[in-house]
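#struct-help
A.M.: can someone run this one for me? Single chain, 97 residues.
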Amino acid sequence: MESVDTVVTGEDVRNTKPAPDIFLAAASHLGLTADDCCVVEDAPNGVAAAKAAGMRCVAVAQTFPAAQLTAADLVRTSLVQVSVADLIGSSAEPRQK
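D.P.: on it. Structure tokens below:
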């Protein structure tokens, strides 16, 4: 089984969220394109950064209410509700707000 470890922090990029730099840097370190990525976020600035990077975004409404995360592709109320189908974009379920 292959495993990849990479850590990119706000200190590694010039512009922090809501700029897409951190997500684009992480994708680059992993050798992936934005289309290959899905970001799981809990904050409006993170959702904005993911979308600006051209990445799929699943928001988890625990830190902020779902109404503030609607720019995400999908909103879940807890991390345990996020499925693999949500991450790859094959979920037939409507967006939860």
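A.M.: thanks! Helices lie at 21-30, 44-52, 84-88.
D.P.: also worth noting: The chain has a mean pLDDT of 91.
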